[in-house]
């Protein structure tokens, strides 16, 4: 029997810094649902600045307590990051579990994590978040640690708080070592892809914009293994794994397509740090495909969040194709459309996928040239290389060698220029 979802009350403070505070609260509700919680109400307050001790005004604390009791809320979720002292003070005043937006996103990541790497990253971020907040987890800071178990050699006079802090710090060190091992494996895989000279393309953008849907439609149509699709769902942070698939539209111009973790407004810095090795796949891409949910009225702000996050990752200057997805929900037709180098399509309807794939192919192979080689039979390895790596239009076996007309990378033309005839 499935457990009933935890009931939560949402609380937000508008100090005039948000371009769209209402949307931020709507997104908080969506995050709560993605964390498998039930929203039973919300309270907002407009202030010049947040209360350093309680985040909200002292009078508003009573309103929150009263509404939480009326609605049967078990947790109170705040729209912004709270300081450790604010969490502690609010917990005492409300006598309820208090979590902030960062903690909520960590909960979602913990639920969604499937691979070993994702689980390690989430645990690292969660422990780093917990460390400065340990004080608030104890009613009495002077509570002493017992002389039992693995901690018995620490001495009975050491506080429980200090013991737990030491345990967490030790665990974080262990996790970082494990992540370094995983990262080395990822680096090896990345280097192999780079050595193959196959262009690398990364899908980036706000969470739930449709990146995984685009990857899946391309894999189904052009992938080496059509069944190698990834999870796609109309939900924030449906997937956390970075998946790489080989795509070839049939022109012998393959490219690697990477699906990345979605970005979000106020994405916790700790998560960006923990997932940095995963997100760094973006840095090595030859082309970024920014996927935008065109049906979301806040799509421009979401694009700014994407731009800011890419800049933080050191990927802000990589060439981009912008894809306005879900354009069918805006009544736009016919689809797909291309306007000023931007694509409008509907990945969910499988509309515009081929056109997008060919646009990607055209851009990442822009350095290719059309040329003809006459390769002597004594250099058969060169002929074999071109037949495998280039798009060969024709091959003619003559007395003086193999005449190959092909579309190849400019570097290959330079490398084998002695064999170029025209």
Automatic annotation (TrEMBL):
Main location: cytoplasm
A cellular component term, taken from the record's GO annotations: cytoplasm
Coiled-coil annotated spans: 158-192
Keyword Coiled coil: yes
Keywords: Coiled coil, Cytoplasm, GTP-binding, Magnesium, Metal-binding, Nucleotide-binding
Binding site for Mg(2+): 212, 239
CDD domains per record: HflX
Cellular compartments annotated: Cytoplasm
Claim: Nucleotide-binding is one of the keywords in the record: yes
Positions bound to GTP: 205-212, 259-262, 325-328
Cofactor requirements of the protein: Mg(2+)
SUPFAM superfamilies with a match to the protein in the record: P-loop containing nucleoside triphosphate hydrolases
MF terms in GO: GTP binding; GTPase activity; metal ion binding; ribosome binding
Hflx-type G domain residues: 199-329
InterPro entries: G_HFLX_dom, GTP-bd, GTP-bd_M, GTPase_HflX, GTPase_HflX_N, GTPase_HflX_N_sf, P-loop_NTPase
Top-rank taxon: Bacteria
Protein purpose: GTPase that associates with the 50S ribosomal subunit and may have a role during protein synthesis or ribosome biogenesis.
HAMAP family: GTPase_HflX
Subunit structure: Monomer. Associates with the 50S ribosomal subunit.
Family affiliation: Belongs to the TRAFAC class OBG-HflX-like GTPase superfamily. HflX GTPase family.
Protein name: GTPase HflX
Source organism: Waltera intestinalis
Lineage: Bacteria, Bacillati, Bacillota, Clostridia, Lachnospirales
């Amino acid at each position: 029997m499935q457990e009933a979802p935890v009931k939560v009350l949402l609380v937000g403070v508008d100090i005039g810094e948000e371009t769209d505070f209402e949307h931020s609260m709507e997104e908080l509700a969506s995050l709560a649902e993605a964390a498998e919680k039930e929203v039973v109400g919300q309270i907002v307050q407009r202030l010049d600045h947040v209360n350093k001790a309680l985040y909200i005004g002292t009078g508003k604390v009573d309103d929150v307590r009263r509404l939480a009791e009326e609605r049967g809320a078990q947790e109170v979720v705040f729209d912004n990051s709270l300081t450790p002292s604010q969490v502690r003070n609010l917990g005492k005043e409300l006598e309820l579990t208090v979590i902030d937006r960062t903690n909520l996103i960590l909960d979602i990541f913990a639920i969604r994590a499937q691979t070993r790497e994702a689980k390690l990253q989430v645990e690292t971020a969660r422990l780093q978040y917990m460390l400065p907040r340990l004080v608030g987890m104890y009613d009495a800071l002077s509570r002493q640690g017992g002389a039992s178990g693995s901690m018995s050699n620490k001495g009975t006079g050491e506080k429980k708080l200090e013991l737990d802090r030491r345990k967490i710090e030790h665990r974080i060190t262990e996790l970082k070592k494990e992540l370094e091992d995983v990262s080395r494996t990822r680096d090896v895989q990345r280097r192999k892809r780079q050595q193959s000279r196959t262009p690398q393309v990364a899908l980036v953008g706000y969470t739930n914009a449709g990146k995984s849907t685009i990857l899946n439609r391309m894999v189904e149509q052009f992938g080496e293994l059509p069944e190698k699709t990834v999870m796609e769902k109309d939900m924030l942070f449906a997937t956390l794994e970075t998946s790489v698939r080989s795509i070839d539209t049939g022109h012998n111009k393959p490219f690697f397509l990477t699906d990345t973790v979605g970005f979000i407004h106020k994405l916790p810095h700790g998560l960006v740090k923990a997932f940095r090795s995963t997100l760094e796949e973006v840095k090595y891409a030859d082309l970024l495909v920014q996927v935008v949910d065109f049906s979301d009225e806040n799509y421009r702000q979401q694009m700014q969040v994407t731009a800011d996050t890419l800049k933080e990752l050191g990927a802000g200057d990589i060439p981009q194709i912008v894809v306005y997805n879900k354009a069918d929900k805006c009544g736009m037709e016919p689809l797909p459309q291309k306007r000023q180098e931007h694509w409008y399509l509907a990945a969910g309807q499988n509309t515009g996928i081929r056109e997008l794939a060919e646009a990607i192919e055209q851009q990442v192979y822009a350095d290719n040239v059309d040329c003809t080689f006459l390769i002597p039979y004594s250099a058969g390895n060169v002929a074999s290389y071109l037949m495998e790596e280039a798009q060969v239009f024709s091959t003619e076996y003559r007395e003086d060698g193999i005449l190959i007309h092909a579309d190849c990378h400019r570097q290959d033309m330079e490398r084998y220029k002695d064999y170029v005839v025209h």
